[in-house]
Predict the structure of Sialate O-acetylesterase domain-containing protein.
Amino acid sequence: MIRNVAGMVLLAATLLFNATAYSRVTLRTIWGDNIVIQQNSEILISGTANRASKVVVTASWNPGKRVVVYADKDGSFQAKLLTPKGSQQYYQVCFDDGETLCLNNILVGDVWFCSGQSNMEMPVKGFRGQPVTGSLDAIVTAKATRSIRLFTVKNAWSTTPAFNSVEGKWSAAGPEAVADFSAAAYFFANKLNQVVDIPIGIINCSWSMSKIEAWMSREMLAGFPAIAMPDPEQKEFGWTAGTPTLLFNAMVQPWQGFPVRGMLWYQGEANTGNPQLYKKLFPEMLKGYRAFFHQQQMPFYFVQLAPWKSDHKDSLDWAQFRQVQLELSQELTHVGMVHTVDLGDEVFIHPPRKKEVGERLALWALADAYGVKGFTPTGPVFQSASVKDGAVEVTFKYGEFGLNPENAPVEGFEIAGSDGHFLPAQAVVINATAVVKVWNEAVSMPVQVRYCFRNYKTGNLVNNFALPAAPFSYTLTK
């Protein structure tokens, strides 16, 4: 009996030794089957293996090439791989520390990182009682065989940077996966994939009602001493998604070392109370993300808030916020803004026409990041204004092929004199130019002009590509 017990103990010890000696390699969850990895890049893959073991990494795009790394005393390792040019070819990456782990069905193409609040989070199938226009067709025609891959980061927060993993996985873009994925992000990826003909990986990292501060790191917020940082030991928050650094730490930080092509941003509703602070935070966030993804000029495209009544349709808080977004879009490089003045809904903060939002984001990417020519990627943007014969002549950028409607009233303009009282204005496009003439017979000396500058106000000024003009407000004299 004693001999049998000793034998069982020896057998258990042997099995434990073997399990330890040949522990399976594990990787951070951002790595998995069906992944799209960034073309022409150096990628850093982190994982764990047996302590102090040798890990041999091979990638099928480079047959015969072995990358050998060693796990440290805690079993952690990092391996660097150079990726090829994007193509429709499927690849495999394997890790061997005595037992082999392989990632399959890999594509190499372009990866885009998407973040923001509920309008980015809103899935193709819509929120309950709030649909997405065209969702049924998008879902039923989705094909898992297309070279689009989706990753949704599950909501999480942390008071300190989390370097290991996020909860989520890469999925092929079949009907079920598309239905649950961010609508704005999916329609962006769908249009991009149609045009550039390389695989597109799209990461949705968003949280409803989140403030910009929550998506920024402590380093990004270092220049804002009035913004209180959370206590690292704190366990509960009254507004988790509004607390500085919490979402960046848990949902963005784990992507460090994962190259992307660019970034999409759909956020601002939670920051409309202080547009001037947002104007200072946004450039710091942009600079921080470009440093995080190791691209000084990383393409960054964002969505201007659509018309919505907020407390009242004629209030100006959202209008003032849109003005800040417009100014940011003109001041920063490799930054594009999608105009949504034609896509809003007076009673729903989540406008349903997300297909247009995603495709307009794709227009920016195609023109700016991919160099596609022959079209204008955005609608008219205010450039200058001057008074002539009692009327204001407003010149627009992105109207070089003409503005519309021609020979018909332009709706949405208001004008004011020195009393600051705005009146509805008549407006017409000066034929074959990018200039709109704006006037009101009751205002003989115009001082201010604005377009769709209320919380909920729509207009009809577009360019020849039917892309809408951005709302604006301008003072001609001080």
